[in-house]
Design a protein that fits this description.
473 residues, Helix Hairpins, 55% helix
Amino acid sequence: MVQDISYVNQKRRLFHSYTFRLALLYAIMFSTSTLIIFYFFYLFTASYMTEQMDNTIQAEIQGLAERYNQEGLNGLTELIAERVNRQQATGNSIYLLTTYRLEPLVGNLDRWPKNAQINDDWLEFKLEINEQTNETHLARAKIFRLPGSYGLLVGRDINQLTEAKRRIIQALTWGLAMMVLLAFLGGLVLSRRTVRKIERINQTAQSIMSGDLSKRVPLTNRNDDFDQVADNLNQMLDRIQALMEDIRRVSDNIAHDLRTPLARLRQHLEEARLQEPASSKSAQNLEQSIREADSLLVTFNALLRIARIEAGQLTTGFTQIDYRTFLEDIVEFYEPLMEDKYQTLETGLDTHILSWGDRDLLFQALANLIENAIKYTPEKGNISLTLTRHVDDVIITISDNGPGIPESEYENVFRRFYRLDQSRTASGNGLGLSMVAAVISMHNGDIALNNNRPGLKIQITLPVTKPSPITKT
């Protein structure tokens, strides 16, 4: 089923790609121009064939006129009769000599053609070939008027000409159809190759957006335009990764270097406070300074913990975990805090699921999420914790009916030190969700935020099989 969906998505991307639309546009333009060329080709060919036919008729009329001038009506009659007898085998030429009343005198037509269209002494009419089958051919003829009110009609059966035109149209139609088909198939092949190359770039970009900065766009060693773009992108990614590592290293070094002086400062403040009377103004100021120092130490420790998790240096060892028992321990730990706020906890932990992971880090991450749910859910609010399994994944869902998070902020809350405006008055340093994301990423999992209407729903997906920690360099 997943493969079918992927195939449908690939076809959809193919037919919506810019290269396919461009190839289709070129095919339409080329087909249109070719159609115009074919039209003029047919027009000139048909005109030439018609002109040749008319010249043949004119030549025959010229010959008959000369005989009439030399030998009169008898000579003309004998010549027409001779030509009629000679044309009986082929039946292409048409002769008819009539009186002024259109009464036939000689020829291979028994009467003047009915419904004949006269255009500059030229006639086009249907010629009866077989009365039993009603077979007719199209004929073209010209009228020649003789002295004495005699009328002479000379023409030819143009069925072969009509058939030739029809075959030309048929050939041009099939040629145009084949050309359009080949152009479409060519555009499809070209677009598919281009989409495949672009898809490799998109997959690399998606991996990088997921947090794996080590991914690079694969090269084909053909040194074409796509390889040049991929090479430039890879160089840009190398530079970005280096800058990110420098920033991360500087922040980690700052946190590490300042933690010791802060600890000493706190110790000195503690010693100074013990030397002052508890009710004095100096003792109160020193107590406030100690709390600020504790807050700074918590922040620096969180920074170092996130850095070590992302570097894969903080694992105490992956062990087998029973997620039901694991989550029950977290719930038991936070039950007193929920009771203080008269909150209701609904659990769905009926399934024992065994998997592998770092128990301590997962406990910190999930405890952080449940603590946030308790913190931001109002008194007498509802919190839900469920555990399910989907194929080879463990799915842990934590829901509440608190104020939630705007959907536009879902990606931002995982950034370090990022805090929503409405939570800035509450205690915290904006590193809790960053630590959660780092732990989940280390376990090859995924975390997603959704609107619980009202409140927030957090869904964590972790693999059931034993994962290998992600090492970030």
